[in-house]
Design brief:
Helix content is 39%, strand content 18%. It has 337 residues and is α/β, with parallel strands linked by helices. A 12-stranded mixed sheet has the order 3-4-2-1-5-12-11-6-7-10-8-9, with helices on both faces. The model has no long low-confidence stretch (mean pLDDT 94).
């Protein structure tokens, strides 16, 4: 093994969804093995079934620990949790066994990361209904990772074609999001964004803040949020040494970041940043969860039960997810608990 290539854990996701398929399709690409050592944390029988369905012609090597992996192109190393009854597996349907198993894969992967046995996680889709059916007390990855990683309020970053986007607010109404756009929050998030980029190995970090109103309010003609809250938050961050800019009108800031003017953009609300990323390249938009003791990347799509196990699902997002984990893993600064 080289010093640069790291072991990346890939929890298999919901077995009834497209996770197993996009995993084996991704690992049928030799370039993945040129960048990292991929380790699937899942069920070996399900992976064997996915190999058959996708006809990728790979072999499975069952291991008990990451150290046992061969990490050779043509062979998928699987840390086998053996927790799916393959005879009871119903593709494309909500099942309690799949919900419980998908949680087990994440829990095991997090432990491996916390123990330093893997360098990062590249996660596949899980299903909220399956988790509920299994009485797993989490609704998604973020909530699991918060508790398992002892990391409250993790910070999401999207990356696509070199453009990085952070989000000031989460899944709330636009009205509620605007109420959360305080100078204190903008200040705090710019500091957190800068720290996140630093952990990822980004030097000389330039952070832009998107404007809320047309033309960033045009000096108060189209709203005062930029004047009263957003700009003062940026100025406070600058006083703390953050190389921050803005508010920059939202109709141009993402284009500028895509072309290298800024290292990242702080989007003010959910759709503002999501639309910019997904219109750039929907399939290559990858999510990175910052603020954890370990590196985690994720595809930004769901389990796609409607096309699961039909050899239809494209693996582009999963490939990018693994590649991004591999790119950042050698530079990533781990945080102690």
């Amino acid at each position: 093994m080289t010093n640069e290539r790291k072991i990346i854990a890939i929890p298999m996701g919901d077995a009834a969804g497209i996770g197993p398929e996009i995993t084996v399709k991704s690992l049928a690409k030799e370039e993945i093995y040129n960048m990292c050592y991929p380790l699937v944390v899942g069920d070996a029988e399900v992976i064997e079934k996915a190999i058959g369905v996708t006809e990728v012609g790979l072999k499975v090597n069952v291991v008990a620990s990451p150290a046992e992996g061969k990490y050779e192109f043509g062979t998928i190393d699987v840390l086998d949790m053996d927790n799916i009854d393959i005879n009871e597996l119903q593709p494309g349907e909500v099942q309690a066994q799949c919900g419980q198993a998908s949680f087990d894969y994440i829990e095991k992967s997090v432990k491996l990361a916390m123990d330093g046995e893997v360098a990062a996680l590249a996660t596949t889709p899980i299903n909220k209904e399956s988790l509920k059916a299994a009485k797993v007390p989490y609704i998604g990855h973020t909530e699991m990772l918060e508790e398992l990683g002892n990391a409250p309020d993790p910070l999401t970053m999207f990356q696509v074609n070199g453009m990085r986007i952070f989000f000031l607010t989460r899944h709330v109404s636009v009205k509620e999001a605007i109420s959360q756009m305080t100078k204190e929050r903008v200040h705090d998030y710019l500091i957190r964004c800068d720290q996140a980029l630093q952990r990822l190995g980004v030097e000389n970090r330039k952070l832009a803040v998107a404007g809320l109103n047309p033309h960033s309010g045009e000096g108060g003609l189209f709203g005062r949020e930029e004047i009263d809250e957003i700009a003062p938050g940026i100025e406070a961050a600058k006083k703390d040494g953050i190389d921050a800019y803005g508010p920059v009108p939202a109709d141009s800031v993402f284009f500028q970041a895509l072309n290298g003017k800024y290292d990242a953009v702080l989007s003010l609300y959910h759709d503002q940043g999501h639309i910019a990323a997904k219109m750039t390249d929907f399939h290559r938009t990858i999510s990175i969860t910052n603020g954890l003791p370990f590196l985690r990347t994720s595809v930004d799509h769901g389990t796609a039960f409607d096309i699961a196990w039909k050899n239809i699902a494209a693996s582009v997002s999963m490939e990018e997810c693994i590649k991004l984990a591999a790119e950042y893993a050698p530079k990533f600064t781990r945080e102690s608990l």
